[in-house]
Amino acid sequence: MRLKIFTGDSMKAALAGVREALGDDAIIISSTEEGGKVKVTAAMEIPAAKITPRKARKPRPKPAAVQKTLKELEQEDYAQSLDLPHFLGHHGLEKALMKRIIETAASFDEDRNITALAKALDVMFHFSPINNDYQKRPLMLVGPPGVGKTVTAAKLASQAVLSGRAVRLINSDTIRTGGTAQLEGYAEILKVPLIEAAEPDLLAPAIDTGRQPDELVIIDTMGYNPLNSDEMADLHHFTRVCDVEPLLVIAAGTDILEAREIAETYAGLGVRRFIATRLDVARRYGSLLATAAAMDLAFAGVGITPYLAKGIEHIDALSLSRLLIRIDDRRPFMPPQEDIEDDEGNTP
């Protein structure tokens, strides 16, 4: 493999240099921005398959609900030309980030279709899915209150059990009402041990005592307020007493600026990957890209439904592209007009 660095005033200019020097078969390894310049590291590899150009544009895909799995989305055809500003704008992306995505996609031969968008996202973001077969460090799920960490812990445990791997659940969320009972219920269904570790000093014994060589350890934590320095200091203590991987869990539909600040705060605790949950109750996914872009966090998976059977699904650049171009036309429920009463009990 031959590596070479290309520099340009924009991503489009840098990628043009890549194409001129290495040809269309070049593989993009990484990209950075320094001093107003874009640096792209590229390499020669096995030529990628090309998409046969279409002679005529097809109509846009009809809007549909998002509750499909990523595997089902992969079976749909999105080879036609796309109005990327229209689709990306729907998700409320910040203008600078949306511009970078569009310019990067435009630098590829498959300009304006989903392949170009997927290649752009692959250049700009990182994808590091959780693999039960190779995950050795204990996973500590962290994040703000109410994002679905306990359900995520149960989903990851369920997937590991189904793959034949021994699992240990640890609960440090002993303060929240019902938190322990919820995880106990999941552990009983999955027939896996559940250990409580309410204090950081109890975490190491909970992880190591009687642990099997290939046992996957998943730690559920309480929801820590990223705006509360005392709570974050407490979480920092938990993440440092043992060699664990803190994994951020954040809900889709979060305000984009809030998502960025949450990512910045938790990255300071060593978070390098995140799982996005509740995609089924959100219509816009700009917060996912904002979370990834804020501190260069990698996508580790997504939770599309609250059901354990669906699990945490792997996501890559192509499946993320398919999510972004499916504009969801669902609307919040509004009761019939005759069912609405004013403060005095009168129907308007």
Characterization of this structure:
By secondary structure, the protein is of the alpha/beta class. Among the domains are: 1-47; 139-314, P-loop containing nucleotide triphosphate hydrolases (Rossmann fold, 3-Layer(aba) Sandwich). It has helices spanning 11-22, 70-74, 84-90, 95-106, 114-124, 149-162, 179-190, 203-208, 229-240, 256-267, 286-294, 317-324; strands at 3-8, 26-34, 37-44, 126-127, 139-142, 167-171, 194-196, 216-220, 245-251, 273-277, 298-302. The strands form two sheets. The chain has an eight-stranded parallel beta sheet, with helices on both faces. Strand 2 (26-34) and strand 3 form a beta hairpin. Helix 4 (95-106) crosses helix 5, helix 6 (149-162) packs parallel to helix 7 (179-190) and helix 10 runs parallel beside helix 11. The protein is globular and about 60 Å long.
Number of H- or I-type helical stretches: 12
User: For the record, what CATH class of the domain at 139-314 applies?
Assistant: Alpha Beta
Shape from CA axes? globular
Query: Strand order, biggest sheet?
Result: 4-11-10-9-5-8-6-7
Helix vs. strand class: alpha/beta
Computed Rg: 22 Å
The CATH topology of the domain at 139-314 corresponds to Rossmann fold
Residue share in helix: 25-40%
The name of the CATH architecture of the domain at 139-314 is: 3-Layer(aba) Sandwich
Strand content: 15-25%
Determine the N-to-C terminus distance.
Answer: 72 Å
What summary fits the major beta sheet?
8 strands, parallel
Low-confidence stretches: 45-58, 60-67
Order of helices and strands: EHEEHHHHEEHEHEHEHEHEHEH
* Whole-number mean pLDDT: 83
Number of strands: 11
Q: Can you say what the CATH homologous superfamily of the domain at 139-314 is? A: P-loop containing nucleotide triphosphate hydrolases
